[in-house]
Amino acid sequence: MGCEGVFHLASVVLIPKSDPKAEVLDPAVRGTLNVLQSCKKNPFLKKVVLTSSISAVARPSVYPKEPLDETSWSCAELCEKLKAWYPLSKVLAEQAAWKFAKENNINLVTVIPSFIIGSSLPYNLHTTASNVLSLLKGENETFAWHGRMGYVHIDDVASCHIKVYEDDTAEGRYLCTSTVLEGPELAAFLAKRYPWLPISLSFNDYVQKHPFEYNTSKVQKLGIKFKGIEEMFDDCTIHKAQRAEGTAIIMSIGTVNPPNVVAQNGYADFYFRVTNNEDKIDLKNKFDLICRKTMIKKKYLYHNEELLKKYPNICSFDAPSLNDRRDICIREVPKLGKQATLKALEEWGRDKSLITHLIMCTSSCVDMPSTDVQIAKLLDLRPDVKFYMVYMQGRPWGKPTKPQAGATQGRGETKPRSSFPCLLPSSTNHRQSTRLKRAEEQSAAAVGAAVVTPFALTHDGAAQKHMIERRAKAQQAFLPAIAIIIVVVVWLREESGRRAILDQLKRKLNLQPEKFRAARHVLWEYGNMVSSCVLCILDVMRRRSLAEGLATTGEGLAWGVLLGFGPGVTVETVMLHSIPI
Fold this sequence. Notes:
The chain folds into two domains: about 5-235, Rossmann fold; about 250-455 and about 465-575, Thiolase/Chalcone synthase (Peroxisomal Thiolase, Chain A, domain 1). Helices cover about 35% and strands about 15% of the residues. The protein has about 575 residues and is an alpha/beta fold. A five-stranded mixed sheet has the order 8-13-14-11-12, sandwiched between helices. A four-stranded parallel sheet has the order 1-2-3-6, sandwiched between helices. Strands 4-5-7 form a three-stranded mixed sheet. Helix 1 (about 20-40) runs parallel beside helix 3 (about 85-105) and helix 17 packs across helix 18 (about 530-545). The radius of gyration is 31 Å and the shape is elongated. The chain has helices at about 20-40, 75-80, 85-105, 125-135, 140-145, 155-165, 185-195, 215-220, 230-240, 265-275, 280-290, 305-310, 320-350, 370-380, 435-440, 500-510, 515-525, 530-545; strands at about 5-10, 45-50, 110-115, 115, 150-155, 170-175, 180, 250-255, 260-265, 300, 355-360, 385-390, 450-455, 480-490, 560-565, 570-575. It contains 18 helices and 16 strands.
């Protein structure tokens, strides 16, 4: 059995530089005929489906009073006079195909789609979608010359191709279009549906066409039901958000902590009691002094004395405890991730069904299925949500995850989907200690989970458009496409998290004390949650700015710098731009 069906979909779409015939017309016609020549040689062939274009229909010499249908053809002479080379190429190619098919007894069916909108497999959108989406950026000049046009969802175009191939009664031409709109009508619709985008309602040099309509009753008799203009643009803009190459806005932040709270001034007693080290009085007193200097009032932990009694090896210096720690992380981390995600979605005012990506980063929780899958199960996410799991060690903020947190490197794609990194180092560490240095690691350790829901903006990267915060008003919801980035942290080694690093930073950069107000508040109220602290600090700054009636979500200022310090020499910075309140 050989090939029974052929779909010829491609054609040249470009503006010729010097020779329209050689650059556009000949490739379209000869390419189509070459395909049909090969089909002629195939004894098993049953049907050929050719993708034509509405441009082969929509430019007749005289518009009829009735809607345009499959009997309508664009006037070749008019197309040439107007230098409309692409419409002319589609007319000539389809007419040549019908002539060849009739002469060689080939069962040919043509599908004639209008402007195709929706998600796209390649990163770069095809010409049609790119032209239409220029409206979303206020670039109406790119689109003005199209004038009145029909629009159709890519899913409907695909369904139509399959239907005309599989249906033995299908023959001839089939118009495939859902909605006909003038350019200003489309711009008004987009401005109303996506009010946060810079859509312009004014058109210069707009091409006014005859107010034609299309009759698609023929294809509808095959069972095709067209999607509306809302679904077309929602899916197209969601797709662009998933593969955005520009900056991003944090639409909401959700933070949660485990239920076990330990007062810092009593932490030394707790730590030395559960590790059976109460006889080491001198070591305990030194550790207690360190705890009291950390500028922490309380912190949240996974473990309490009941849990540590269940897993005694965790508190022993030399007992094997890796499996116990792993079991706790595998069980508890996804729960925190779910809680933080739901909290972020509640603030944003949108449903979890709109999540497009879930990015999980951790230095532990090694398990199969991995933690991202576990969280997705707990949230009952759609099966088409894209999961990313990043295992990392030693970095406190974003470098190891930047290629993944917003990206698809290694999967045939090169452009980032989100510009916001994520981390999720998680562990439990309450080992018995005979040295101050080892005990010191526990002085500021705390547990927290944070989730951000970033929406990626696609533009050419102008700095003044870079925003990384949003208004805390759920009714001003953004585009229904989000990538969930989860951050859950348990502990950080060495001296990180003690107030000394903030004091030294203040002194070296000669900053005013109020610049550290949010950071010190988070450290005081929650302890050192490492990467989660970053999102908690942003959340505190935003909420405090709103409560105090400041001009922006960045404590009244427009620009800021996020500084991240980790073990060793790890230092990272992120430029932040607030938005007006």
